[in-house]
Amino acid sequence: MTEHPDDPMDGIDRAILDALHQTLALADPVPPHLVDDIEFSLSLAAMNAEFALLADEPLGVRGPTAESADSVTFTSSTMTLMVVIGRDDGQLRIDAWVSGGGITVELIQGADRIEQVSDVNGRVSWFPVQPGLARFLIAPITSGGRPVITPAIEL
Length: 155
Prior knowledge:
Layout: H1 11-27, H2 34-47, E1 50-51, E2 53-54, E3 71-75, E4 80-88, E5 91-98, E6 104-109, E7 112-117, E8 123-129, E9 133-138, E10 148-149, E11 153-154
Parallel strand pairs: 1-10
Antiparallel strand pairs: 2-3, 3-4, 4-5, 5-8, 6-7, 6-9, 9-10, 9-11
């Protein structure tokens, strides 16, 4: 171990830091997809998209287990998107309602993008859907409007 703070690190210093890193990784690991979520959030400015927020959700804290919901609602200044996650013949199904008919909504999972246009009641659906992280991109509702994108949810 170095005896003076200005001395270069030695093997013992590196071993202590490695043990500390391993302890922290076990006790409080980085959440999966955190880096991807940060990079995505930073890219929103370049996309000029409005970011929808989860509606009427209590603020949570990080815990050891994940919470599960079968429906979520996202809101922005220009629209609302309600998403219902279900199963059909053992496979994931998403039914969603957006603020109006004829609106293009994309389901984004990694590099995969599946576009649907809402019916007269604002309904869109995707089936079958792979488990994993998903976001929704809603095309501008008005001419000259901005697209709206939701935070990622785990399906």
